[in-house]
Design a protein that fits this description.
There is one protein chain. The model has no long low-confidence stretch (mean pLDDT 97). The chain starts with 15 loop residues before the first helix and ends with a helix. It has a seven-stranded mixed sheet with strand order 1-9-8-5-4-2-3, with helices on both faces. Strands 10-12-11 form a three-stranded antiparallel sheet. The protein contains 13 helices and twelve strands. It is 37% helix and 13% strand. The protein folds into two domains: 239 residues, Aspartate Aminotransferase, domain 2; 119 residues, Alpha-Beta Complex (Aspartate Aminotransferase, domain 1). It is α/β, with parallel strands linked by helices. The site of pyridoxal-5'-phosphate has 14 residues, from helix 3 and helix 4.
Length: 377
């Protein structure tokens, strides 16, 4: 079924095809060329990430993080249950047991109050997911990691251009706080390249090895910089780097990052103001932004009172040619992981699985139309 107002429509800034054409005719099609370097430098300079490596997806970036943190069979990794499968899969592929944590009652992000009780001598890492681009409580998470000597891998797939403010007033970009962070440029995110991602490496200890894992386990990057006179197989690795054609597309997006963000924030604000009174009247929750977090307008969601109300709301919009969609199903109840889960109930995660609905959010959205139809519900 085709919708007048789809859930997402990829936004082109205009120069994508031009830069892709340029990459093709310069004769450099494989990875780690001019456009890859432009993108990586852009992110490092703008957000203060230690070192950036483009990847073919956020899933890949998470898999690199699991390799870098040296996760071994039987190691435990703590993450929210309310997240995308890739957050967990990357670590499960290395044999980890996942200790799923509940969401906060106010919003889907991990409840940091519960993390302490999940830490055991086998715990190796915490993976906070910045849902909707809204920061998890990173100060608390980094303090726990320091106390128990754990790695922190931020799943920042939705969190480009979003910030966390520490209690001393310091503001840092999401993805620059954990030891490692993974971003996505999938076409449903704010900044896109079709499929695409990036690993931000903030801890010095990972920098050299990250480049090797990225280049199939070879020291090829050192070779191209003239640091070694031949390159070979020096570690495990895989093919994680995207082609220059993908990086060229991404570069065109980055040139317009401010404009994209401004537009999305304006849409988000129109939703928020237009729906406030209506939402209160129906007992429907609007997105919550804690005082330490910023809003990068990745997503606008509603939290319905129950599954029936959500189903009726989605149906109402569908009848009016608007596609709104629900999101994650708790991973601890998934067919794959339920038999491995330790049996703890995670009620808030389940409530967001049943009650959260995402409204259309894209650059040229007619947001007034969606607000008008919702208010008739
Ligand atoms: C989109 C997303 C991913 C996966 O990103 P890909 O680039 O599609 O691999 C992982 N985690 C979260 C939280 C996401 O939103």
């Amino acid at each position: 079924m085709l919708f007048l107002t789809p859930f997402n429509r990829p936004h082109l800034t205009g120069k994508e095809a031009h830069y892709m054409y340029d990459a093709v005719y310069e004769g450099k099609l494989s990875g780690n060329g001019k456009y890859t370097k432009l993108c990586q430098q852009f992110f490092e300079n703008r957000y203060g990430f230690g070192k950036c490596l483009l990847t073919t997806s956020c899933t890949d970036a998470l898999e690199m993080a699991a390799l870098l943190t040296n996760i071994q069979p039987g190691d435990e990794v703590i993450m929210p249950s309310y997240t995308f499968v890739s957050t967990a899969n990357a670590f499960v592929l290395r044999g980890a047991n996942i200790r799923f944590c509940d969401s906060r009652s106010e919003e889907p992000n991990i409840d940091t109050e519960l993390i302490d009780s999940l830490i055991t001598p086998r715990t190796k890492a915490i993976v906070p997911v910045h849902y909707a681009g809204v920061a998890c409580d990173m100060e608390r998470i980094m303090a726990l990691a320091a106390k128990y000597n754990l790695w922190v891998v931020e799943d920042a797939a939705q969190a480009i251009d979003s910030y966390y403010t520490f209690s001393d007033g310091t503001k840092k970009a999401l993805g620059s706080i954990g030891h490692l962070a993974a971003f996505s440029f999938h076409e449903t995110k704010n900044i896109i390249s079709g499929e695409g991602g990036m690993l931000a490496i903030n801890d010095e200890r990972f920098k050299a090895r990250a480049e090797i894992i990225w280049e199939k386990g070879t020291n090829r990057s050192s070779f191209f910089r003239g640091e070694v006179d031949k390159y070979g197989w020096v570690d495990v690795g895989s093919s994680f780097l995207p082609s220059e054609i993908v990086a060229a597309f991404l570069w065109a997006q980055l040139e317009h990052l401010e404009q994209i963000q401004q537009r999305r924030k304006a849409i988000w604000q129109t939703y928020y103001e237009g729906l406030q009174e209506w939402a209160t009247r129906h007992g429907i929750g609007l997105p919550v932004t804690p005082p330490y977090a910023s809003n990068n307008a990745h997503m606008f969601y509603l939290v319905c009172q129950n599954l029936e109300q959500r189903t009726a709301l989605i149906e109402h919009l569908k009848k009016n040619q608007i596609l709104a969609v629900f999101h994650y199903l708790s991973l601890h109840k998934s067919p794959f992981y339920a038999p491995r889960h330790d049996g703890r109930e995670l009620p808030h995660s389940d409530r967001f699985s049943d009650c959260l609905v995402r409204l259309p959010m894209f650059y040229d959205l007619d947001v007034e139309r969606v607000v008008d139809e919702l208010i008739k519900f």
